[in-house]
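Feature request, filed as a ticket because there's no other form

It would be nice if the structure record came with a short human-readable summary line next to the tokens. Right now we just get the raw output. Example of a typical job, pasted below so the devs can see what we mean:
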Amino acid sequence: MASYMDYTSPSTQYTFDVNKSPLFIKDNQNYINVLGIKQLNTLENVSLLDIYLSTNNVVEPHYHQNAAELVYCISGSATVSILNPFTKQILNYTITPGQVANVPQGWWHYEVAAVDNTHLLAIFNAPTPEVILGSDILKFTPANIMSHTYCLDENQWKQVTAPVKPSTYIGPYKDCNKQKENIPTQNVHQQPQNIPLYPQTPYTPQYQRYW
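Raw output as currently delivered:
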């Protein structure tokens, strides 16, 4: 990657406190900090998210259209789940301190904390990783398109998706009235879940969001 940074400029930055760069805060145990080129202008083809989660909290399903993601576990434990678009299988990898899971660019994925005080570092090969969030897809795709495409009752679809909040980032919501349930964690050795193979039409986002 070519660098056009003027390293003689007094505005050149070489250090930054990621603790002062919140991306999303659910509560004091579940939040995400961000470091990209907007925060540290000497970064080139790298950026990161500093992720803190408590038990059963989920970094919502999403994908990065411009970057691969390497998830490193600092403390606690989390299951990184990835949809392989070629095999149509969900791959589940439970990682503990010192272990990583790699998510190729553009692959649908999510992370679920298995214990409290889980701390993950997500590293990207882009100066600012772009993201498409599952909550935004559910909220902003017109209900009549979803109902027509998948042979659904439009009113039922609207009712089911009404509680979805755009840009959820970490779920479930603090005001969720649904009875809490334990999410079974799966590890790398378990058989992936098979998803029936259907002809796929590439999804073209109408907008871009940034971490």
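Something like this underneath would help us a lot:
The chain has a mean pLDDT of 88.
The CA atoms of residues 144 and 150 lie 10 Å apart.
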